[in-house]
DNA sequence: AAAGCGTGTCATTGG
DNA sequence: CACCAATGACACGCT
């Protein structure tokens, strides 16, 4: 079945390719997301798929729908059905294997897309990539230049010839499906170059530049601002530093004292580009540490505030309990006072020896300890006056 | 697929 | 005025 041969192709090819592991620094390995972006440009027809989930191993897979086109470019799409492995093995002729091996070779050449394309041009049927700038895109994007150009917009080289390569699926490419392994290889090599050099893989192709300063000014500066995963950035600076032959590691540049740092520029050995890069590296490194400290402080503040909230909650609970206790005591005292008051009142007698009516009179306790019997209306009017004074 | 988190970077600000 | 640390905002990758 077609799915069977698809499996076999994948196995044989990936075997070949995995034998020639392209080992990348861990920090340089494209992340899954990057791969998915690359994957977006895949087409449903014959295709090469960069499987960089384990980017040390380049995995080549052929989609089942049109793998015949890769295997045999002369077969028109849909005109031939390959339905079993025998057919496939016939199609998987030496020429195809050569192509595959050449791709592997190309990958061994540090993904030098130009070299890869040269191999293919020498070996295949002459079908060429419709890339207008094959001479400029991969070659002019050599590692050194990309790094040098980091601080110079003028050195940017666009990737117009590969529009859509990174941005997403481009239907036109399906028309070239049988065209190809080597197109795809070059294209993916190119994408890899982009990723390795300046991480512009997240940019639309027309903005993908080699060696351009990654900070885009103007209205696009936020959207297109260069950003990469944390693990990639440092090595990015390190590679730039190496490319410019800066005689210090990124760590040294960042951590050296300000005096040592200034001494770097005192002897005029450094070019403008080097100086600019060194300053940028130091600034980024310092800022990175500052951001880390800032976030730590922020977390500390949050933790402290959470502690404060907890303590205040506990204090509130405690005060509420105290308040309840005091209210209880006050009520108890009021009850006792009431009992005492009634008791005292029940013992009082007027001039005729009659009990005093508690609805008409009240007891008043003076500051000197003496007690008076006062008419209740007097007490009430005095209370009114007091309350009015308080309002004023 | 969406949300949340961690991180690096850039712009800005205040010391 | 230059420098630098601090910080808000943003984008990205990862879970």
TrEMBL record:
Cite a single GO MF annotation.
Answer: DNA-binding transcription factor activity, RNA polymerase II-specific
Q: Which CDD domains match?
A: bZIP_NFE2-like
Please note every region of biased composition (Low complexity): 125-145
Q: Which SMART domains match?
A: BRLZ
Q: Name one GO cellular component term.
A: nucleus
One Pfam family linked to the record: bZIP_Maf
Sequence ranges assigned to domain BZIP in this UniProt record? 277-340
Which UniProt keyword terms apply here? Activator, Coiled coil, DNA-binding, Nucleus, Transcription, Transcription regulation
Start and end residues of each stretch annotated as Disordered: 125-147
Give start-end ranges for the coiled-coil region(s): 295-336
Q: Which InterPro entries match?
A: bZIP, bZIP_Maf, bZIP_sf, NFE2-like, TF_DNA-bd_sf
Keyword Nucleus included in the entry's annotation: yes
Similarity comment: Belongs to the bZIP family. CNC subfamily.
Alphabetized PANTHER family for the sequence = NUCLEAR FACTOR ERYTHROID 2-RELATED FACTOR, NUCLEAR FACTOR ERYTHROID 2-RELATED FACTOR 3
Protein name (record): NFE2 like bZIP transcription factor 3
Q: What is the lineage of its organism?
A: Eukaryota, Metazoa, Chordata, Craniata, Vertebrata
């Amino acid at each position: 079945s077609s799915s069977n041969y698809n499996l076999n192709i994948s196995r044989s090819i990936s075997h070949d390719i995995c034998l020639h592991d392209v080992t990348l620094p861990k920090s340089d390995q494209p992340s899954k997301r990057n791969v998915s972006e690359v994957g977006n440009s895949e087409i449903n027809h014959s295709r090469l798929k960069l499987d960089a989930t384990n980017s040390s191993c380049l995995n080549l897979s052929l989609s089942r729908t049109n793998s015949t086109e890769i295997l045999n470019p002369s077969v028109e799409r849909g005109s031939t059905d390959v339905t079993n492995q025998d057919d496939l093995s016939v199609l998987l002729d030496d020429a195809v294997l050569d192509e595959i091996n050449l791709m592997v070779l190309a990958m061994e050449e540090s993904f030098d897309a130009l070299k890869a394309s040269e191999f293919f041009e020498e070996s295949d049927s002459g079908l060429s990539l419709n890339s207008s700038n094959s001479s400029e895109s991969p070659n002019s994007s050599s590692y050194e230049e990309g790094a040098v150009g980091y601080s110079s917009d003028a050195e940017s080289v666009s990737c117009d010839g590969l529009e859509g390569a990174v941005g997403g699926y481009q239907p036109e490419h399906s028309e070239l499906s049988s065209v190809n392994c080597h197109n795809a290889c070059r294209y993916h090599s190119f994408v890899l170059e982009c990723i390795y050099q300046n991480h512009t893989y997240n940019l639309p192709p027309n903005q993908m530049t080699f060696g351009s300063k990654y900070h885009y000014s103007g209205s696009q500066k936020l959207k297109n601002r260069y950003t990469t995963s944390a693990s990639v950035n440092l090595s990015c600076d390190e590679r730039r530093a190496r490319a410019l032959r800066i005689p210090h590691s990124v760590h040294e540049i960042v951590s050296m004292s300000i005096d040592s740092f200034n001494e770097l520029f005192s002897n005029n050995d450094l070019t403008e580009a080097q100086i600019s890069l060194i300053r940028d590296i130091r600034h980024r490194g310092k800022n990175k540490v500052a951001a880390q400290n800032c976030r730590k402080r922020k977390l500390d503040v949050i933790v402290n505030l959470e502690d404060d909230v907890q303590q205040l909650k506990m204090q509130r609970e405690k005060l509420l309990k105290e308040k309840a206790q005091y209210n209880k005591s006050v009520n108890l005292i009021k009850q006792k006072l009431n009992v005492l008051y009634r008791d005292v009142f029940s013992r009082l007698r007027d001039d005729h020896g009659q009990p005093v009516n508690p609805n008409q009179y009240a007891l008043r306790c003076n500051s000197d300890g003496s007690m008076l019997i006062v008419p209740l209306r007097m007490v009430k009017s005095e209370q009114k006056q007091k309350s009015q004074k308080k309002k004023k």
